[in-house]
Amino acid sequence: QRQERIRNFSIVAHIDHGKSTLADRILQNTGTVSEREMRDQMLDSMDLEQERGITIKLNAIELEYTAKDGERYIFHLIDTPGHVDFSYEVSRSLAACEGAVLVVDAAQGIEAQTLANVYLALENDLEILPVINKIDLPAANPEAVQEEIEDVIGIEADDAVLASAKANIGIDDLLEQIVEKVPAPTGDLEGPVQALIFDSVYDPYRGVVLSIRVQNGVIHPGDTIQIMSNGKTYEVVELGIMSPKPIPRDYLMAGDVGYVTASIKDIQDTRVGDTITLADNPATEPLEQYRQMNPMVYCGIYPVDSSDYGDLRDALEKLQLNDASLEFEAETSQALGFGYRCGFLGLLHMDVIQERLEREFNLNLIATSPSVIYHVQKTDGSWVEVDNPSEMPDNTNIESVEEPYVKAEIMVPQEFVGAVMELSQKKRGNFVTMQYLDDIRVNVIYEIPLSEIVFDFFDQLKSHTKGYASLDYEIIGYRPSNLVKLDILLNNEVVDALSIIVHRDFAYDRGKNLVRKLKEVIPRQQFEVPIQAAIGQKIIARTNIKSLRKDVTAKLYGGDVTRRQKLLNKQKEGKKRMKAVGSVEVPQEAFMAILDMD
Ligand code: GDP
Ligand code: MG
Questions:
Q1: CA nearest ligand 1 atom 24, residue
Q2: Does any ligand 1 atom lie closer than 6 A to the CB of residue 114?
Q3: How would DSSP label each residue in 255-308?
Q4: Ligand 2 (single-atom ion) residues, CB below 5 Å
Q5: What is the chain's mean pLDDT, rounded?
Q6: Cα–Cα dist 94/37, whole Å
Q7: pLDDT at residue 253, rounded to an integer
Q8: Smallest Cα–Cα separation from 335: which of 579, 86, 80?
Q9: Which InterPro entries does the record associate with it (predicted)?
Protein backbone atom coordinates (compact mmCIF):
# COMPACT_ATOMS: atom_id res chain seq x y z
CA GLN A 1 0.00 0.00 0.00
CA ARG A 2 1.30 3.41 -1.01
CA GLN A 3 0.65 5.21 2.27
CA GLU A 4 3.01 2.87 4.16
CA ARG A 5 5.83 4.07 1.95
CA ILE A 6 5.29 7.80 2.58
CA ARG A 7 7.54 9.69 4.99
CA ASN A 8 6.78 13.35 5.82
CA PHE A 9 9.47 15.25 7.66
CA SER A 10 10.78 18.75 8.30
CA ILE A 11 14.35 19.81 8.73
CA VAL A 12 14.72 22.10 11.72
CA ALA A 13 17.76 23.71 13.34
CA HIS A 14 19.24 26.84 14.77
CA ILE A 15 20.18 29.28 12.02
CA ASP A 16 23.36 28.37 10.09
CA HIS A 17 23.63 24.83 11.42
CA GLY A 18 23.21 23.55 7.86
CA LYS A 19 19.54 22.75 7.16
CA SER A 20 19.49 24.09 3.63
CA THR A 21 22.80 22.47 2.73
CA LEU A 22 21.54 19.16 4.10
CA ALA A 23 18.39 19.52 2.01
CA ASP A 24 20.63 20.10 -1.03
CA ARG A 25 22.47 16.84 -0.38
CA ILE A 26 19.23 14.93 0.06
CA LEU A 27 17.92 16.29 -3.25
CA GLN A 28 21.16 15.35 -4.91
CA ASN A 29 21.69 11.89 -3.41
CA THR A 30 18.16 10.82 -4.25
CA GLY A 31 18.58 12.06 -7.82
CA THR A 32 15.70 14.51 -7.41
CA VAL A 33 17.71 17.21 -9.13
CA SER A 34 20.51 16.47 -11.56
CA GLU A 35 24.07 17.70 -11.12
CA ARG A 36 23.40 20.17 -13.87
CA GLU A 37 20.39 21.75 -12.16
CA MET A 38 21.95 21.73 -8.72
CA ARG A 39 22.99 24.94 -7.04
CA ASP A 40 23.71 25.80 -3.41
CA GLN A 41 20.76 26.22 -1.06
CA MET A 42 18.54 24.96 -3.87
CA LEU A 43 15.32 25.40 -1.90
CA ASP A 44 15.99 29.01 -1.00
CA SER A 45 14.28 30.02 -4.21
CA MET A 46 13.74 33.70 -3.46
CA ASP A 47 16.51 36.03 -4.62
CA LEU A 48 16.45 37.56 -1.20
CA GLU A 49 17.13 34.19 0.42
CA GLN A 50 20.05 33.48 -1.88
CA GLU A 51 21.59 36.89 -1.35
CA ARG A 52 21.31 36.90 2.40
CA GLY A 53 22.03 33.19 2.77
CA ILE A 54 19.02 32.67 4.99
CA THR A 55 15.80 30.71 4.58
CA ILE A 56 12.71 32.88 4.92
CA LYS A 57 9.96 30.65 3.59
CA LEU A 58 9.26 27.01 4.22
CA ASN A 59 9.62 24.84 1.15
CA ALA A 60 7.96 21.50 0.60
CA ILE A 61 9.14 19.00 -2.00
CA GLU A 62 8.55 15.39 -2.86
CA LEU A 63 11.33 12.98 -3.66
CA GLU A 64 11.74 9.26 -4.13
CA TYR A 65 14.21 7.08 -2.34
CA THR A 66 15.00 3.44 -2.92
CA ALA A 67 15.96 2.04 0.47
CA LYS A 68 18.33 -0.80 1.32
CA ASP A 69 15.26 -3.05 1.70
CA GLY A 70 14.67 -2.59 -2.02
CA GLU A 71 11.39 -0.68 -1.58
CA ARG A 72 10.76 2.73 -3.12
CA TYR A 73 9.72 5.35 -0.59
CA ILE A 74 8.09 8.73 -1.12
CA PHE A 75 9.60 11.49 1.00
CA HIS A 76 8.03 14.88 1.55
CA LEU A 77 10.75 17.13 2.81
CA ILE A 78 10.08 20.57 4.25
CA ASP A 79 13.00 22.93 4.72
CA THR A 80 12.30 25.64 7.29
CA PRO A 81 13.83 28.96 8.39
CA GLY A 82 15.92 29.09 11.57
CA HIS A 83 15.60 32.72 12.62
CA VAL A 84 13.29 33.38 15.56
CA ASP A 85 11.22 35.84 13.48
CA PHE A 86 10.16 33.03 11.17
CA SER A 87 9.27 30.35 13.69
CA TYR A 88 5.70 30.66 12.45
CA GLU A 89 6.83 29.03 9.23
CA VAL A 90 8.36 26.22 11.28
CA SER A 91 5.23 25.54 13.29
CA ARG A 92 3.16 25.27 10.11
CA SER A 93 5.68 22.94 8.51
CA LEU A 94 5.62 20.67 11.51
CA ALA A 95 1.84 20.43 11.41
CA ALA A 96 2.24 18.76 8.01
CA CYS A 97 4.76 16.11 9.15
CA GLU A 98 5.28 12.98 11.21
CA GLY A 99 9.00 13.48 11.79
CA ALA A 100 11.58 16.20 12.34
CA VAL A 101 15.22 15.97 11.34
CA LEU A 102 16.98 18.04 13.98
CA VAL A 103 20.28 19.39 12.71
CA VAL A 104 22.86 20.37 15.33
CA ASP A 105 26.21 21.91 14.46
CA ALA A 106 29.00 19.63 15.73
CA ALA A 107 31.12 22.62 16.75
CA GLN A 108 28.41 24.89 18.20
CA GLY A 109 26.18 22.36 19.91
CA ILE A 110 22.63 23.10 20.97
CA GLU A 111 21.50 26.71 20.73
CA ALA A 112 18.36 28.58 21.74
CA GLN A 113 16.50 27.98 18.49
CA THR A 114 17.50 24.30 18.55
CA LEU A 115 15.55 23.97 21.77
CA ALA A 116 12.65 26.11 20.56
CA ASN A 117 12.31 23.85 17.51
CA VAL A 118 12.47 20.72 19.64
CA TYR A 119 9.59 22.02 21.76
CA LEU A 120 7.57 22.73 18.62
CA ALA A 121 8.29 19.23 17.33
CA LEU A 122 7.29 17.65 20.63
CA GLU A 123 4.08 19.70 20.72
CA ASN A 124 3.22 18.20 17.34
CA ASP A 125 4.09 14.64 18.53
CA LEU A 126 6.81 14.28 15.93
CA GLU A 127 9.54 11.66 15.91
CA ILE A 128 12.83 13.56 16.27
CA LEU A 129 15.91 12.34 14.39
CA PRO A 130 19.06 14.09 15.58
CA VAL A 131 21.77 14.82 12.99
CA ILE A 132 25.12 16.11 14.13
CA ASN A 133 26.33 18.11 11.15
CA LYS A 134 29.64 19.71 10.13
CA ILE A 135 31.74 16.85 11.52
CA ASP A 136 34.35 17.88 8.94
CA LEU A 137 35.15 21.04 10.92
CA PRO A 138 38.38 20.90 12.92
CA ALA A 139 36.46 22.26 15.94
CA ALA A 140 33.78 19.55 15.66
CA ASN A 141 33.13 17.59 18.82
CA PRO A 142 30.40 15.10 17.94
CA GLU A 143 30.67 13.10 21.19
CA ALA A 144 30.13 16.21 23.31
CA VAL A 145 27.18 17.28 21.18
CA GLN A 146 25.72 13.78 21.43
CA GLU A 147 25.88 13.99 25.20
CA GLU A 148 24.41 17.46 25.16
CA ILE A 149 21.46 16.27 23.09
CA GLU A 150 20.77 13.54 25.65
CA ASP A 151 21.24 15.79 28.69
CA VAL A 152 19.57 18.97 27.51
CA ILE A 153 16.89 17.72 25.15
CA GLY A 154 16.42 14.35 26.77
CA ILE A 155 16.22 12.27 23.62
CA GLU A 156 18.27 9.22 22.73
CA ALA A 157 21.31 10.27 20.65
CA ASP A 158 23.28 7.02 20.58
CA ASP A 159 22.65 6.51 16.91
CA ALA A 160 22.41 10.18 15.94
CA VAL A 161 23.52 10.57 12.34
CA LEU A 162 27.05 11.96 12.11
CA ALA A 163 27.07 14.06 8.99
CA SER A 164 28.79 16.64 6.92
CA ALA A 165 26.30 18.17 4.55
CA LYS A 166 29.17 19.98 2.91
CA ALA A 167 31.35 16.92 2.36
CA ASN A 168 28.39 14.61 1.66
CA ILE A 169 29.02 12.35 4.65
CA GLY A 170 26.27 10.51 6.51
CA ILE A 171 23.47 11.30 4.09
CA ASP A 172 22.75 7.63 3.28
CA ASP A 173 22.59 6.82 6.97
CA LEU A 174 20.10 9.67 7.42
CA LEU A 175 17.91 8.52 4.51
CA GLU A 176 17.76 4.99 5.97
CA GLN A 177 16.89 6.30 9.42
CA ILE A 178 14.07 8.38 7.95
CA VAL A 179 12.62 5.20 6.44
CA GLU A 180 13.01 3.25 9.70
CA LYS A 181 12.06 5.82 12.32
CA VAL A 182 9.65 8.36 10.88
CA PRO A 183 6.17 6.83 11.09
CA ALA A 184 4.15 6.51 7.91
CA PRO A 185 0.99 8.65 7.82
CA THR A 186 -2.14 6.86 8.99
CA GLY A 187 -4.94 8.89 7.42
CA ASP A 188 -8.20 7.31 6.33
CA LEU A 189 -8.30 6.95 2.54
CA GLU A 190 -12.04 6.22 2.41
CA GLY A 191 -13.23 8.94 4.81
CA PRO A 192 -14.31 12.51 4.00
CA VAL A 193 -11.48 14.76 2.83
CA GLN A 194 -9.61 16.87 5.35
CA ALA A 195 -6.54 18.75 4.12
CA LEU A 196 -4.58 21.45 5.92
CA ILE A 197 -3.56 24.59 4.03
CA PHE A 198 -0.07 25.25 5.36
CA ASP A 199 1.11 27.79 2.82
CA SER A 200 -0.13 29.69 -0.21
CA VAL A 201 1.14 31.99 -2.88
CA TYR A 202 -0.52 34.15 -5.53
CA ASP A 203 0.22 33.36 -9.15
CA PRO A 204 -1.04 35.87 -11.71
CA TYR A 205 -2.03 33.10 -14.17
CA ARG A 206 -3.33 30.33 -11.93
CA GLY A 207 -4.69 32.38 -9.05
CA VAL A 208 -4.00 31.26 -5.50
CA VAL A 209 -1.77 28.17 -5.29
CA LEU A 210 -2.35 26.32 -2.02
CA SER A 211 0.19 24.06 -0.35
CA ILE A 212 -1.71 21.33 1.45
CA ARG A 213 -1.19 18.27 3.59
CA VAL A 214 -3.97 15.78 3.05
CA GLN A 215 -4.88 14.10 6.34
CA ASN A 216 -7.86 12.02 5.20
CA GLY A 217 -9.51 11.08 1.92
CA VAL A 218 -8.45 11.65 -1.69
CA ILE A 219 -8.72 14.78 -3.88
CA HIS A 220 -8.87 14.69 -7.70
CA PRO A 221 -8.83 17.41 -10.36
CA GLY A 222 -12.44 18.40 -11.10
CA ASP A 223 -13.53 17.81 -7.47
CA THR A 224 -15.38 20.66 -5.81
CA ILE A 225 -13.42 21.63 -2.72
CA GLN A 226 -14.84 23.62 0.15
CA ILE A 227 -12.96 25.90 2.53
CA MET A 228 -14.28 24.92 5.95
CA SER A 229 -13.97 28.30 7.68
CA ASN A 230 -16.20 30.17 5.20
CA GLY A 231 -17.96 27.51 3.13
CA LYS A 232 -16.64 28.86 -0.20
CA THR A 233 -16.36 26.26 -2.96
CA TYR A 234 -14.02 25.93 -5.94
CA GLU A 235 -13.41 23.37 -8.64
CA VAL A 236 -9.91 21.90 -8.56
CA VAL A 237 -8.10 22.80 -11.77
CA GLU A 238 -4.77 21.17 -11.08
CA LEU A 239 -3.07 19.38 -8.24
CA GLY A 240 0.34 17.86 -7.88
CA ILE A 241 3.64 17.81 -6.05
CA MET A 242 6.76 19.96 -6.02
CA SER A 243 9.95 18.14 -7.00
CA PRO A 244 11.19 20.88 -6.81
CA LYS A 245 9.31 22.07 -9.91
CA PRO A 246 5.54 21.53 -9.91
CA ILE A 247 4.54 18.12 -11.30
CA PRO A 248 0.79 17.59 -11.88
CA ARG A 249 -0.79 14.38 -10.54
CA ASP A 250 -4.10 12.54 -10.90
CA TYR A 251 -4.84 12.71 -7.19
CA LEU A 252 -3.52 13.65 -3.75
CA MET A 253 -4.38 11.19 -1.00
CA ALA A 254 -4.19 10.96 2.78
CA GLY A 255 -0.55 11.39 3.74
CA ASP A 256 0.40 13.41 0.65
CA VAL A 257 1.88 16.89 0.67
CA GLY A 258 1.33 18.88 -2.52
CA TYR A 259 -0.29 21.87 -4.21
CA VAL A 260 -3.77 22.66 -5.49
CA THR A 261 -5.02 25.36 -7.86
CA ALA A 262 -8.72 26.11 -8.29
CA SER A 263 -8.94 29.49 -10.07
CA ILE A 264 -9.11 31.19 -6.70
CA LYS A 265 -8.91 34.90 -7.41
CA ASP A 266 -10.13 36.35 -4.18
CA ILE A 267 -7.15 36.34 -1.95
CA GLN A 268 -9.15 36.80 1.24
CA ASP A 269 -11.01 33.51 0.82
CA THR A 270 -8.24 31.07 1.59
CA ARG A 271 -6.23 31.50 4.69
CA VAL A 272 -3.25 29.51 5.81
CA GLY A 273 -4.40 27.23 8.61
CA ASP A 274 -7.81 26.54 7.07
CA THR A 275 -9.05 23.04 6.35
CA ILE A 276 -10.21 21.96 2.88
CA THR A 277 -12.91 19.35 2.43
CA LEU A 278 -15.08 18.21 -0.50
CA ALA A 279 -18.44 19.91 -1.05
CA ASP A 280 -20.36 16.69 -1.82
CA ASN A 281 -19.08 14.74 1.18
CA PRO A 282 -17.84 17.30 3.69
CA ALA A 283 -15.97 16.46 6.87
CA THR A 284 -17.83 17.41 10.03
CA GLU A 285 -14.83 18.97 11.78
CA PRO A 286 -11.92 21.06 10.54
CA LEU A 287 -8.39 19.91 11.45
CA GLU A 288 -6.84 21.31 14.56
CA GLN A 289 -5.47 24.82 13.96
CA TYR A 290 -1.88 25.40 14.79
CA ARG A 291 -0.84 28.17 17.11
CA GLN A 292 -1.58 31.62 15.64
CA MET A 293 1.25 34.11 15.84
CA ASN A 294 0.55 37.69 16.80
CA PRO A 295 2.66 40.51 15.45
CA MET A 296 5.05 42.00 17.98
CA VAL A 297 6.39 45.00 16.09
CA TYR A 298 4.50 47.61 14.14
CA CYS A 299 5.59 50.27 11.71
CA GLY A 300 4.03 52.50 9.09
CA ILE A 301 4.77 51.74 5.44
CA TYR A 302 4.23 54.59 2.98
CA PRO A 303 4.73 54.86 -0.76
CA VAL A 304 7.31 57.47 -1.70
CA ASP A 305 5.04 58.35 -4.59
CA SER A 306 1.54 58.78 -3.15
CA SER A 307 -0.06 57.53 -6.37
CA ASP A 308 1.30 54.05 -5.52
CA TYR A 309 -1.06 53.77 -2.56
CA GLY A 310 -3.46 51.37 -4.33
CA ASP A 311 -0.61 49.23 -5.59
CA LEU A 312 0.76 49.03 -2.07
CA ARG A 313 -2.57 47.68 -0.81
CA ASP A 314 -2.60 45.10 -3.59
CA ALA A 315 0.96 44.06 -2.82
CA LEU A 316 0.29 43.75 0.91
CA GLU A 317 -2.72 41.53 0.23
CA LYS A 318 -0.72 39.25 -1.99
CA LEU A 319 2.18 39.04 0.42
CA GLN A 320 -0.16 38.34 3.31
CA LEU A 321 -1.38 35.29 1.46
CA ASN A 322 2.15 33.99 1.40
CA ASP A 323 2.88 35.18 4.93
CA ALA A 324 -0.11 34.90 7.22
CA SER A 325 1.76 36.49 10.12
CA LEU A 326 1.78 39.86 8.33
CA GLU A 327 -0.95 42.27 9.41
CA PHE A 328 -1.87 45.67 8.01
CA GLU A 329 -4.46 48.39 8.14
CA ALA A 330 -4.75 51.81 6.54
CA GLU A 331 -3.36 54.82 8.38
CA THR A 332 -2.49 58.39 7.59
CA SER A 333 0.43 60.46 8.72
CA GLN A 334 0.60 64.23 8.54
CA ALA A 335 4.18 63.93 7.45
CA LEU A 336 3.94 60.98 5.05
CA GLY A 337 0.37 60.95 3.78
CA PHE A 338 -1.59 57.73 3.15
CA GLY A 339 -0.03 54.41 4.06
CA TYR A 340 -0.46 51.26 6.11
CA ARG A 341 0.27 50.34 9.70
CA CYS A 342 1.85 46.90 9.45
CA GLY A 343 2.48 44.28 12.12
CA PHE A 344 5.49 41.93 12.06
CA LEU A 345 6.96 39.11 14.13
CA GLY A 346 10.24 40.97 14.53
CA LEU A 347 12.65 43.36 12.88
CA LEU A 348 14.11 40.89 10.42
CA HIS A 349 10.58 40.04 9.34
CA MET A 350 9.84 43.74 8.91
CA ASP A 351 12.98 44.26 6.88
CA VAL A 352 12.24 41.25 4.69
CA ILE A 353 8.67 42.37 4.01
CA GLN A 354 9.73 45.88 3.06
CA GLU A 355 12.31 44.45 0.71
CA ARG A 356 9.90 41.93 -0.81
CA LEU A 357 7.33 44.69 -1.38
CA GLU A 358 9.93 46.77 -3.16
CA ARG A 359 11.36 43.97 -5.26
CA GLU A 360 8.46 41.71 -6.05
CA PHE A 361 5.97 44.53 -6.54
CA ASN A 362 8.28 47.22 -7.78
CA LEU A 363 7.36 49.77 -5.13
CA ASN A 364 9.39 52.53 -3.58
CA LEU A 365 8.63 52.75 0.13
CA ILE A 366 9.37 54.50 3.39
CA ALA A 367 9.03 52.56 6.64
CA THR A 368 8.69 54.45 9.92
CA SER A 369 10.49 53.53 13.11
CA PRO A 370 9.12 50.34 14.65
CA SER A 371 7.03 50.24 17.80
CA VAL A 372 5.51 47.58 20.06
CA ILE A 373 1.90 47.81 21.35
CA TYR A 374 1.52 49.87 24.53
CA HIS A 375 -1.46 49.77 26.85
CA VAL A 376 -2.35 53.25 28.03
CA GLN A 377 -4.79 54.12 30.79
CA LYS A 378 -6.19 57.61 30.43
CA THR A 379 -7.12 59.89 33.31
CA ASP A 380 -10.81 59.15 32.61
CA GLY A 381 -10.08 55.50 33.44
CA SER A 382 -10.41 54.11 29.90
CA TRP A 383 -7.69 51.99 28.28
CA VAL A 384 -6.35 52.36 24.74
CA GLU A 385 -3.88 50.25 22.75
CA VAL A 386 -1.20 52.29 21.05
CA ASP A 387 0.89 50.76 18.26
CA ASN A 388 1.86 54.09 16.76
CA PRO A 389 3.77 56.51 18.99
CA SER A 390 2.15 59.51 17.33
CA GLU A 391 -1.21 58.29 18.65
CA MET A 392 -0.06 58.35 22.25
CA PRO A 393 -2.49 60.53 24.24
CA ASP A 394 -1.21 63.80 25.68
CA ASN A 395 0.89 63.38 28.81
CA THR A 396 -1.70 65.28 30.81
CA ASN A 397 -4.35 62.71 29.85
CA ILE A 398 -2.32 59.66 30.83
CA GLU A 399 -2.83 57.84 34.09
CA SER A 400 -0.41 54.98 33.43
CA VAL A 401 1.35 53.10 30.62
CA GLU A 402 2.09 49.40 30.37
CA GLU A 403 4.45 47.71 27.96
CA PRO A 404 4.89 44.08 26.87
CA TYR A 405 7.58 42.01 28.58
CA VAL A 406 9.23 38.84 27.36
CA LYS A 407 10.96 35.99 29.09
CA ALA A 408 14.30 35.81 27.31
CA GLU A 409 16.42 32.66 27.40
CA ILE A 410 20.00 33.39 26.51
CA MET A 411 22.30 30.44 26.03
CA VAL A 412 26.03 31.21 26.37
CA PRO A 413 29.36 29.72 27.37
CA GLN A 414 30.01 30.53 31.04
CA GLU A 415 32.76 33.05 30.32
CA PHE A 416 30.19 35.42 28.79
CA VAL A 417 27.62 35.32 31.58
CA GLY A 418 28.91 38.62 32.99
CA ALA A 419 28.62 40.37 29.64
CA VAL A 420 25.10 39.03 29.10
CA MET A 421 23.97 40.20 32.52
CA GLU A 422 25.44 43.64 32.02
CA LEU A 423 23.70 44.03 28.68
CA SER A 424 20.37 42.71 29.97
CA GLN A 425 20.49 45.07 32.93
CA LYS A 426 21.18 47.99 30.65
CA LYS A 427 18.14 46.99 28.62
CA ARG A 428 15.96 47.23 31.74
CA GLY A 429 15.92 43.46 32.27
CA ASN A 430 15.07 41.72 35.54
CA PHE A 431 17.17 38.66 36.32
CA VAL A 432 15.12 35.51 36.85
CA THR A 433 17.46 32.55 37.03
CA MET A 434 20.42 30.77 35.56
CA GLN A 435 20.61 27.11 34.58
CA TYR A 436 23.87 25.25 34.05
CA LEU A 437 23.37 23.01 31.04
CA ASP A 438 26.74 21.28 31.28
CA ASP A 439 30.32 22.16 32.19
CA ILE A 440 30.48 24.84 29.56
CA ARG A 441 27.11 26.37 28.89
CA VAL A 442 24.59 28.35 30.84
CA ASN A 443 21.01 29.32 30.13
CA VAL A 444 20.50 32.83 31.51
CA ILE A 445 16.89 33.89 31.95
CA TYR A 446 15.74 37.49 32.11
CA GLU A 447 12.46 39.33 31.89
CA ILE A 448 13.01 42.24 29.52
CA PRO A 449 10.71 44.78 27.85
CA LEU A 450 9.90 43.58 24.33
CA SER A 451 10.75 47.00 22.92
CA GLU A 452 14.35 46.57 24.07
CA ILE A 453 14.53 43.06 22.61
CA VAL A 454 13.15 43.89 19.20
CA PHE A 455 15.43 46.80 18.57
CA ASP A 456 19.08 45.95 18.76
CA PHE A 457 19.32 43.48 21.63
CA PHE A 458 20.20 40.51 19.47
CA ASP A 459 22.94 42.32 17.56
CA GLN A 460 24.41 43.64 20.78
CA LEU A 461 24.18 40.24 22.40
CA LYS A 462 26.12 38.75 19.52
CA SER A 463 28.82 41.39 19.68
CA HIS A 464 29.16 41.12 23.46
CA THR A 465 29.62 37.35 23.28
CA LYS A 466 31.79 36.93 20.18
CA GLY A 467 28.76 35.49 18.44
CA TYR A 468 28.36 32.63 20.91
CA ALA A 469 25.08 33.61 22.53
CA SER A 470 21.77 32.46 21.19
CA LEU A 471 18.41 33.88 22.10
CA ASP A 472 14.83 32.71 22.33
CA TYR A 473 11.95 34.62 23.86
CA GLU A 474 8.24 34.54 24.52
CA ILE A 475 5.78 37.22 25.59
CA ILE A 476 4.79 36.97 29.25
CA GLY A 477 2.41 39.92 29.54
CA TYR A 478 2.15 43.63 30.23
CA ARG A 479 3.80 45.56 33.06
CA PRO A 480 3.61 49.19 34.13
CA SER A 481 6.50 51.35 32.97
CA ASN A 482 7.45 54.99 33.17
CA LEU A 483 7.20 55.76 29.47
CA VAL A 484 6.94 59.04 27.60
CA LYS A 485 6.52 60.10 24.01
CA LEU A 486 9.50 61.76 22.44
CA ASP A 487 8.69 64.01 19.48
CA ILE A 488 11.05 65.17 16.78
CA LEU A 489 10.62 68.59 15.17
CA LEU A 490 12.09 69.35 11.77
CA ASN A 491 12.04 72.98 10.80
CA ASN A 492 9.90 73.62 13.91
CA GLU A 493 7.17 71.15 12.87
CA VAL A 494 6.52 67.89 14.72
CA VAL A 495 7.07 64.99 12.32
CA ASP A 496 4.55 62.42 13.54
CA ALA A 497 6.32 59.55 11.79
CA LEU A 498 9.49 60.19 13.81
CA SER A 499 7.90 60.10 17.26
CA ILE A 500 9.03 57.30 19.57
CA ILE A 501 8.09 56.03 23.01
CA VAL A 502 10.94 55.76 25.50
CA HIS A 503 11.52 55.14 29.17
CA ARG A 504 11.70 58.46 31.00
CA ASP A 505 15.15 57.64 32.41
CA PHE A 506 16.56 57.31 28.90
CA ALA A 507 14.60 60.14 27.28
CA TYR A 508 17.35 62.76 27.41
CA ASP A 509 20.03 60.43 26.09
CA ARG A 510 17.79 59.11 23.37
CA GLY A 511 16.74 62.62 22.39
CA LYS A 512 20.30 63.83 22.14
CA ASN A 513 21.46 60.80 20.18
CA LEU A 514 18.50 60.86 17.87
CA VAL A 515 18.98 64.52 17.00
CA ARG A 516 22.67 63.90 16.32
CA LYS A 517 21.93 60.87 14.20
CA LEU A 518 19.26 62.70 12.19
CA LYS A 519 21.71 65.46 11.46
CA GLU A 520 24.02 62.83 9.97
CA VAL A 521 21.45 61.18 7.75
CA ILE A 522 19.29 64.08 6.55
CA PRO A 523 21.04 65.76 3.64
CA ARG A 524 21.58 69.49 3.58
CA GLN A 525 18.71 71.47 2.10
CA GLN A 526 18.56 74.88 0.45
CA PHE A 527 17.99 76.44 3.88
CA GLU A 528 19.04 75.81 7.44
CA VAL A 529 16.90 73.18 9.18
CA PRO A 530 16.65 73.06 12.96
CA ILE A 531 16.17 69.58 14.45
CA GLN A 532 14.70 69.36 17.94
CA ALA A 533 13.67 66.61 20.33
CA ALA A 534 10.78 67.38 22.68
CA ILE A 535 8.74 65.81 25.43
CA GLY A 536 5.40 67.56 25.35
CA GLN A 537 6.19 71.26 25.04
CA LYS A 538 9.66 70.88 26.45
CA ILE A 539 12.61 70.88 24.04
CA ILE A 540 15.28 68.52 25.38
CA ALA A 541 17.82 68.57 22.53
CA ARG A 542 18.47 70.56 19.39
CA THR A 543 20.87 71.04 16.53
CA ASN A 544 20.87 72.52 13.01
CA ILE A 545 21.47 71.11 9.57
CA LYS A 546 23.40 73.79 7.74
CA SER A 547 22.09 74.99 4.41
CA LEU A 548 23.52 73.74 1.15
CA ARG A 549 26.00 76.16 -0.28
CA LYS A 550 26.56 75.04 -3.85
CA ASP A 551 26.09 72.26 -6.34
CA VAL A 552 27.84 69.20 -4.90
CA THR A 553 29.57 68.48 -8.17
CA ALA A 554 30.87 72.00 -8.76
CA LYS A 555 34.08 71.34 -6.90
CA LEU A 556 34.97 68.53 -9.27
CA TYR A 557 35.65 71.11 -12.00
CA GLY A 558 33.84 68.98 -14.55
CA GLY A 559 37.17 67.35 -15.31
CA ASP A 560 36.65 63.87 -14.05
CA VAL A 561 33.57 62.76 -15.92
CA THR A 562 33.21 59.30 -14.46
CA ARG A 563 33.61 60.59 -10.94
CA ARG A 564 31.01 63.24 -11.59
CA GLN A 565 28.69 60.67 -13.09
CA LYS A 566 29.16 58.40 -10.11
CA LEU A 567 28.31 61.16 -7.72
CA LEU A 568 25.19 62.04 -9.66
CA ASN A 569 24.13 58.42 -9.74
CA LYS A 570 24.72 58.17 -6.06
CA GLN A 571 22.54 61.19 -5.50
CA LYS A 572 19.86 59.63 -7.64
CA GLU A 573 20.02 56.41 -5.65
CA GLY A 574 19.93 58.34 -2.45
CA LYS A 575 16.79 59.98 -3.74
CA LYS A 576 15.09 56.65 -4.08
CA ARG A 577 13.91 56.22 -0.53
CA MET A 578 13.45 59.89 0.19
CA LYS A 579 10.24 61.62 1.11
CA ALA A 580 9.37 65.31 1.29
CA VAL A 581 8.20 66.02 4.82
CA GLY A 582 6.87 69.57 4.70
CA SER A 583 9.70 71.38 2.98
CA VAL A 584 12.42 68.96 4.10
CA GLU A 585 13.61 65.93 2.11
CA VAL A 586 13.92 63.06 4.58
CA PRO A 587 15.65 59.76 3.68
CA GLN A 588 14.57 56.30 4.89
CA GLU A 589 17.56 56.10 7.24
CA ALA A 590 16.11 58.92 9.33
CA PHE A 591 13.13 56.79 10.29
CA MET A 592 15.40 53.96 11.33
CA ALA A 593 17.83 56.19 13.24
CA ILE A 594 16.29 54.98 16.47
CA LEU A 595 17.58 51.46 15.76
CA ASP A 596 21.07 52.66 15.26
CA MET A 597 21.96 54.35 18.53
CA ASP A 598 23.88 53.81 21.82
P1 GDP B 1 20.77 26.92 7.54
O2 GDP B 1 20.71 28.33 8.01
O3 GDP B 1 20.58 25.96 8.68
O4 GDP B 1 19.89 26.62 6.37
O5 GDP B 1 22.29 26.68 7.09
P6 GDP B 1 22.92 26.62 5.62
O7 GDP B 1 22.64 25.31 4.98
O8 GDP B 1 22.57 27.87 4.89
O9 GDP B 1 24.46 26.59 6.03
C10 GDP B 1 25.09 27.61 6.76
C11 GDP B 1 26.57 27.62 6.46
O12 GDP B 1 27.20 26.43 6.96
C13 GDP B 1 26.88 27.67 4.97
O14 GDP B 1 27.99 28.51 4.79
C15 GDP B 1 27.22 26.23 4.63
O16 GDP B 1 28.11 26.14 3.54
C17 GDP B 1 27.89 25.77 5.91
N18 GDP B 1 27.75 24.30 6.10
C19 GDP B 1 26.61 23.57 6.01
N20 GDP B 1 26.87 22.26 6.25
C21 GDP B 1 28.20 22.18 6.50
C22 GDP B 1 29.09 21.08 6.83
O23 GDP B 1 28.72 19.92 6.93
N24 GDP B 1 30.40 21.40 7.04
C25 GDP B 1 30.87 22.68 6.95
N26 GDP B 1 32.16 22.89 7.16
N27 GDP B 1 30.07 23.70 6.64
C28 GDP B 1 28.75 23.48 6.42
MG1 MG C 1 18.50 27.69 5.35
A1: 134
A2: no
A3: T-EEEEE-----GGG--TT-EEEETTS--SSPPPPPPP----EEEEEEESSGGG
A4: 19-20, 55
A5: 87
A6: 28
A7: 95
A8: 579
A9: EF-4, EFG_II, EFG_III/V, EFG_V-like, EFTu-like_2, G_TR_CS, LepA_C_sf, LepA_CTD
